[in-house]
Write the structure tokens for this entry.
Amino acid sequence: MKRLVIALLFGVGGALPVSAVAGGVSWEFRVVEFEANEWTFRATLDPVEPLKYFPAGDCQTIHVAGAFARLRWWFSGGMVITPELHVEAVKAMKRARENAQTVRFGLLGEGVRQQRGDDRCAFESRGLVLIEENGTEGIYSVFSAP
């Protein structure tokens, strides 16, 4: 039953209204660099305004790298993020970079985890999802289930 509910929420219509998602927060970013294939991605993002409430605080630039964790989401009790939703979000991030547009980038659940190393503004993601947010699209990262 749990899988059915999650599949219905995330599978109908492609994008899930943000009001249906608990615990999400987003910020406006410029996409400085973005490289991706269907499953892996690497993004460099500059915040439009100083970051408040972001995991690492006042980063001038954030680096987010990740890969869609298909088995992780399947074995966590259902597909929190489907492969189709992840691919949609990757395409939206590519469009924002190619068209020099800003993008709402946010976190669901844990969202991201800081990567080990010296750069406190480098993060790891296990998937992206595109969500409609008050008439605009937001791209959200998920590291652990919301």
Notes: Residues 1-22 have pLDDT under 50 and may be disordered. The CA atoms of residues 111 and 142 lie 4 Å apart. Helices lie at 2-11, 70-75, 83-98. The two ends are 18 Å apart (CA to CA).
